[in-house]
Amino acid sequence: MHPRNHEIPSKDTFTRRRALAAAAFVGASALTNGRPIAAQPTLQEGRIVQKGRIRQAICPGCLSKARMSTEERIATVARMGLAGMDFVGRSDWPLLKKHGLVATMVAGAGSIKRGLNDKSLHGKFLEDFKSNIAAAAEFGWPNVICMAGDRADIGDGEGMDNCLLILREAVKIAEDHGVTICMELLNSKVDHPGYMADRSAWGFELCRRVGSPRFKMLYDIYHMQVMEGDLIATIRKNIRHIGHFHTAGVPGRHELDENQEIYYPAVMRAIVETGYDGYVAHEYSPVRDAMASLEQAVRTCDV
User: Fold this and answer.
1) What is the mean pLDDT of residues 19-41?
2) What is the pTM of this model?
3) 180 CB-side CA count, 13 A
4) β-strand pairing of 215-220 with 242-247
5) I need a surface site. Which of 126, 223, 237, 275 has the fewest CB within 10 A?
6) What pLDDT does residue 46 have?
7) Using alpha carbons only, how large is the chain's radius of gyration in Å?
8) Which domain range does residue 215 map to?
9) Which residue in 116, 115, 92 sits closest to 102, CA to CA?
């Protein structure tokens, strides 16, 4: 992937060919008698979110190739009409507040390789939960993330029991602070071989056993499409156990465009229809101009 620095065309430079492409990809313009009429606002012009039924956010990687400071990225996200950003470090939380944004997912406990299924680390993880949940609550942030960890020599049943052991203590802290712990579902087929929480059924069963509204799954649409598909039916059936969403195109984890297999407008409409009121954060790695790609993703999911 190579960074590109093309400017997004303004209305004055929108040609008929660009208007047709935008209409096909993101509905950015319409045609009358074969001639383009005014395009919807571009990033240069301001707000992109119009309907707002999906509360969209981004992960830092979406704009990692854009030549901006941290505050410029945050200001751009706010100007577009997004709700917030995932995985922003504590030192930048005041900047989010300044621009009226939410840190939609922050650090909790565990890593992809060494997660909650490892009992030897439970003492450390519980201290991490205490510190990170309290910090999130102080700023009014809704979610902290945790990871199941690799299987290694741990069976799925034992791993679930181990996760349950620490989560029963961690959710007490989360309940006291009004913060939700979200465990991320990842694919073990392509990106994270050996990761335990690689099937939604395993994750949702863990939610049922924990039995607290303060523990849910981070349902990564990209990862679950790779592992099992059946996205809409799974989301509808299990929405009570989903606390957060991530998006990206399949295959490759790139833009939400015509080169990937998920029809995101239908998935987003299904999420809206469930009454879900949490956040959907984009977590793709752009291969085109980062700003144009983000505008496309936001329009695609603004259903």
Assistant:
1) 36
2) 0.85
3) 24
4) parallel
5) 275
6) 80
7) 20
8) 48-301
9) 92
Number of domains in the chain: 1
pLDDT band at 8 (very low <50, low <70, confident <90, very high): very low
Nearest residue to 10 (alpha-carbon basis) of 39, 48, 51 = 39
What 3-state DSSP class applies to 171? helix
Would you state the pLDDT for residue 61?
Answer: 93
Report which of 90, 102, 88 is spatially closest to residue 142, judged by C-alpha positions.
102
CA nearest neighbour of 77 among 49, 39, 116, 52: 49
In a domain? residue 39: no
Q: Which are the catalytic amino acids?
A: 184, 283
Q: What are phi and psi of 135, to 5 degrees?
A: -65, -45
Q: Around Cβ 95, how many Cβ atoms within 10 Å?
A: 17
In a domain, 29, yes or no: no
- Residue 11 counted as domain residue: no
**Tokens standing for residue 231:** 């996205």
- Which CATH number belongs to the domain containing residue 68 in this structure? 3.20.20.150
